[in-house]
Amino acid sequence: KVTKRLDANVDKTKPEAIRYLPQNYFEQLTNDIEIEAFRREIEDVVFSHVDRTDRMEKDTFVELQEFKTQQSAQEISVLKAKLRELNIEIVRLEEQADPLFKKKLEEELNAKKDELGSLDNTKPSEVLKPETETPEQKKLSEKIAQLTKQAKQLEESERNTVEIIAQKKNKLQKLSSLQQSVSAMSAQIVSQKLELKSVCEELGLNIEAIVKAEINTHSIEEQSLVLTTEIQVLEIDNKKQFSNEIDFNMLASLLDLRAACAYIKERVIELKEQLDTPQRKYQTYLDKLAKWSKQREDIIGNEVEPRSGTIKHLESQISYIDKELSKKLLTARGARKEISEKIFSSKQKILTFYSELKQSVEAKLSLVRTSGFSVNINASFVLDQSFSKLFLDFIRKNRKGYFHGANDPKQALSLLLSEVEWNDFDSIYKFIEIAIKKMEVHDGEPLSIKEQVSDIKHFYDFLFSLEYFSARYELRLGGKNLNKLSPGEKGLLLLVFYLQLDKDDIPLVIDQPEDNLDNESIFTVLAQCIRDAKKNRQVILVTHNPNLAVGADAEQIIYVQLDKVENYKFTYESGAIENPRINQKIVDVLEGTQPAFIKRRLKYQI
Questions:
Q1: Which of 58, 240, 277, 484 fits a disulfide with 63 by CB distance 3.0 to 4.6 angstroms?
Q2: What distance in Å separates the CA atoms of residue 344 and residue 346, rounded to the nearest whole number?
Q3: DSSP alpha helices (H): ranges in 122-244?
């Protein structure tokens, strides 16, 4: 005999000595948290039915799952990285496709054209070149024209040099990124080889002979050094002293070009001061005209490579939006769908692992199936309980839209989710497209999804990466899962699970399993399961139902009586069903006394 008080502390680090299913336990499984815990228990039970030769020397379901699905997990990780990069591009394209973006460009273009019109109205009044001029004045004019041309050439060289330096620095940055990527690849190979080394040694293999990777970054370093030197040459200040004899065409450094240009302009100013009044007026006109022409060119822009903000650039952007953008956006979205489908395919490999593992359990469950009672374990994709919260957390609460607070967003989302078949990619993708379309219009008015979502890029990452559902086991009765069953169906289904599938041999204690169950199910299904289960473990039931006590052929009956008058005194009496006293107690308590039982028998015409 072992005596314990009910208020005694329990050492929770010890393994459970019994499995206890309390009264109303099955009704509690409507709670999402409880269902998640129960799914983990299903996984453990399924694992217990896996043949030891198929366990790959793993001790738990989780370890076997990780071992068997490692490749799929790596595939999904790579695909998600590609998806995140593509979503950056799609968000950029969608911003350009927004009608407001085009309207903004058109307004900028109109403003630039107005600016050009205003500038054209301020074109300097023409001053004719003096017809008569002294040889000295003529010589000065020619020198000024020559130097002005030289200054213009230097300014052009300066602009070209700036472009060349920018291109070289851009290329140098790409080389640096390439160097880092290659170094990371090298480190990853070393890391993965170390991970695989123990497996190879266990199999008598040499990882160095299997994986040979040669990484040579010499060409990258060499090209980077050349570019760095070239940039230094173009940016160095040689502090040159300029004179009339210097060949300005030989200058290469950006600072030298700027200094030379400043030197020539100073020379021009000095020479202009030596001109007579008519010539000075003419030169002033030429300066104003040159300045006006430069301003006009800056507004219109270059035809080949127009600068940002010029008329040519704005026209080019609007033309791109009208002719090419929609096709480019369609292509990018198509590529994103392909990546999502590949992620789904990789997840299906994990689902296949679940399906293969449950075959022995299915064979066990087939023993209790009848025409009216079909129970099975289904491996399928199940939506994570946190999905609705994560989805709605992206939605701005202060913007109108389909998922706005006033429209009961949880209910709106639940209606969309109720149509999704999570084992079918097309159904899942249709849900994503519908959810996005719902956010793009409200009460017939077009809306911008970017205004409704706090972080559109991460929202797309979340939706299209398909992280929010995963492979799970579900206990089903007649094709319906736990959430869709009545309390009675749920109770019967779970009792069959614990009695028929649980291979643990510790005592199973069940408090009033007959709650919400009809007597036919108790006798035809439950009693049979109890008779099978007690061959391997002790089953203790607290019950008021004779079909369980008698139909399940109990080895021992414990009759409990409570005397409230005698200070709530409990008395116990035990024995086999065939014990006359116990037999009488069964008839009195469970059948409502012998006359009641006889009366029912006669009414049934048995």
A1: 58
A2: 5
A3: 135-202, 207-210, 218-235
Contacts 24+ apart (CB under 8 A), 179-185: 179/217, 179/220, 179/221, 179/224, 182/215, 182/217, 182/220, 183/217, 185/215
CB 496 within 8 A of CB 377: no
- Contacts within 8 Å (CB) and 24+ apart, 122-125: 122/292, 123/289, 123/292, 124/285, 124/288, 124/289, 124/292, 125/285
Q: What are the structure tokens assigned to 240, written together?
A: 């040159």
At position 319, the amino acid (one-letter code) is S
Q: Average pLDDT for residues 378-383, to the nearest whole number?
A: 90
Side-chain-facing half-sphere of 87: CA atoms under 13 Å:
19
Nearest to 269 by CA among 157, 151, 175, 173: 151
Distance in angstroms (rounded) separating the CA atoms of residues 592 and 7: 35
Distances (CA, A) of 131 to 88, 126, 140, 282: 65, 15, 15, 11
Share above pLDDT 90 across residues of the chain, in percent, rounded to a whole number: 41
Average pLDDT over residues 198-224: 91
- Inter-CA distances, 561 with 79, 328, 381, 572, Å: 66, 81, 49, 6
Residue 535 to residues 3, 237, 507, 530, 554: CA-CA distances in angstroms? Answer: 28, 96, 12, 9, 12
Instruction: Tell me which DSSP letter residue 605 carries.
Output: T
SS3 content of the chain, % helix, strand, coil (to 5): 65, 10, 30
Q: What are phi and psi of 90, to 5 degrees?
A: -65, -40
Q: Is the pLDDT of residue 273 over 60?
A: yes
User: Token match 């009496």: residue?
Assistant: 573
> Given pLDDT bands bounded at 50, 70 and 90, which one contains residue 589?
confident
Q: From the centroid of its chain, how far is CA 466?
A: 6
According to the model, what pLDDT value does residue 475 have? 82
Q: Which residues are bridge partners to 509 per DSSP?
A: 20, 540
Give the C-alpha distances (Å, rounded to integers) separating 427 from 419, 422, 430.
Answer: 8, 7, 5
